[in-house]
Fold this protein.
Amino acid sequence: VVDSLSQAHRVIEFPTVTKDGGRLQTTSEIFGQNVFSLKEMSKMLPKPVYKNFVKQLKGNETLDKITADAIAHAVKVWAIQRNASHFTHWFQPLNDSTAEKHDSFLTLKSTFVDGFEEVTAIDTFSGSQLLQSEPDASSFPSGGMRSTFEARGYTVWDTKSPMFIQDGPHGTSILYVPSVFISYNGEALDEKSVLLRSAETLNKTAVEVLNLIEPKDEDHPRTKSVYATLGTEQEYFLIDRALYTLRPDLKITGRTLLGGLPPRHQQLEDHYFGKIPTRVLAAISEAEYELARLGVPIKTRHNEAAPAQFEVAPIFEEAMLAVDHNMLTMDVLHRVAHRHKLKCLFHEKPFRGVNGSGKHCNWSLSTDQGDNLLDPSSSPETNLRFLLFLVATLKAVYDHGDVLRAGIASASNDHRLGAHEAPPGIISVFLGTQLNEVLDAVEEGRAVNLDALGTQLQHVRVSGTVLDLKVTTLPSISRDLTDRNRTSPFAFTGDKFEFRAVGSKQSVSFPVTLLNSAVASTLMDMRDALIKQKGDKDVASKDDQLAVIRDFIKQSKPIRFEGDNYSAEWAEEAARRGLPSIGKSSDAFGHLLRPGNAAMLRKTGVFSEAELQSRYHILVEKYCKDVMIEGQTLVTMVMQQILPAAFQYRRNLAEAASSMASINVQADPEIALLNQLTPLVQDLQAETNGLCALLNKMIDIEDVEVLSKEACQEALAAMNRIRDLADGLESHVSDKLWPLPKYTELFFNI
Ligand code: ADP
Ligand code: MG
């Protein structure tokens, strides 16, 4: 380990980017180099073929064989120019990661030379290979939807997400074809298909609502499409790889199951926004370089609150692309960290006692004209539109907060949620004082002058008050009219919502799918309300719109909360308001099937009944497996590493005491320490035996619902007790004998 550590601290070379006249290329110059973008396609495809493809993208036509063949040929040529040897359908099965199976372009062809048949090799890639592939799908989670005897599954090219290349071995590369994964009967077996469906229904209903309020006007074309935008702030830890390999708990479960806090960790608040360590910066910048070439628009990097914790954030994009790009970001960070002898930890709580990691999902709605529908605008024409979409989101979160909670539930996120570092299990929305006042005024029917409302809303976003910095050489800055509320699980932050409860490790696809669907569903209600309100008028008048807005404000009022979400008072207040409080994930999964939620997910066409059941089953089963794997790992570590170390130390002390006694020297100190150790060791042994027996019983419990709610909770409690005892030993046993790298080493060797 020491060798490897000193190796890691060699002079670190920053990645050298191709030079151009002696100057390093800027990020914008390398951006998207490895992507088969629309621009690249338009250069390489015959015009009519390209036009056909664009029509298909707009949803007006299905892709015909000739177009598919032409695109396959063009992308093959493009990829081979970039050293591609293989292609793969790249998809997102229901296990929070991505899957790929590589096929080479190699095809054999018979030719006749001088009357003899000879086999020659050529590179081919056909339209049908591009469009569809059939992986042996029997080993992916399906939640009982697919029995092993009908194990067919298909990956189908998702034309909305561009193809790209990534490095392969020996200077080669691999062509990635983003795909969805469906069963023989067309049921979703992945994250992407349901996300696409949610985007489609959101688009359709949002456009219907907009067309009810947008006058038919030659100069202002009506909105044709609406899409969700997403920016994911990804938190993660980086630790030394050699030390990581000595921690079976980190390797197997992604988090430390043992380990006490060192005297200094995050209490000095000196890590957040601190200087990024050199080795880490080298790794991050190399990852950013690769990501830029993949067209992932990384914008921000910084140290986070806990030691060895960092964050990366992109510029927001259309949600479907942002989801792919977040998966790529995690993948590239993981791989590049390896090269720098670092290990990237995406688990929500790798270390007990310091902050865990989340993935804030910044979400908004945008039109094909590039208008952000959640941007309070200065123009009186659009502030009612803003209010409509704002209250639709409020109502969606009010009606379906529990399904959003289910969408972020996992065994790992439980260690972070509600731990005074992340939002609790009660979903509420923070709007800020100014916006709350606007909504109150509308609700109470106070004289709301529409133009004045416009100016008021403008204030929320733009101006604020000017802060006097009391130093003449500093420019004055404006202050946002509302401060942030970091404790809120779902906060309005000026022109978007920030869903903060999402876990760092999970795919954001599922929470975004659920959010899109819930909003689409309330927009359907809003559409119907507007139609009723407007009567036989062409479009809804301002008063019609205000009436609908008022109604939605009233209905969704209990979801708004501006105070401290971590406080005990809020838990009581939320209970009075009837908001569900779902502390444990094992209690959250069932809310997916709550009739109101299931009806919403079916009505929007996002999930079929069977798909929803299967999703529920997969999540609960995964939860149980995670807990059981952790329990088994802990038992192994205690039996094979911790107890032997404690026994050895006891023997050392006993031998020391007896040799002291033999020369008539007081052995009291050794004996005192032995007496302290003995009950710890006894208790640890007993608890571990108890956990072992419990785990053996759990294997036979077939009903995962029962398993997750009872046995798993019992196992988690036992694991905590074992940890406390083992951490007690860690602070007593000689450091020389302790078999695991401690938090001090893990935190401060990067
Ligand atoms: P914060 O508000 O958390 O201080 P930023 O304003 O920089 O930080 O935004 C955080 C993330 O939100 C970034 O990834 C950013 O691209 C994203 N974001 C900004 N505007 C939108 C939007 N309209 N829709 C979705 N995401 C957005
Ligand atoms: Mg943020």
In short: The first helix runs from residue 2 to 8. Confidence is low (pLDDT under 50) at residues 459-464. The first strand starts at residue 19 and ends at 20.
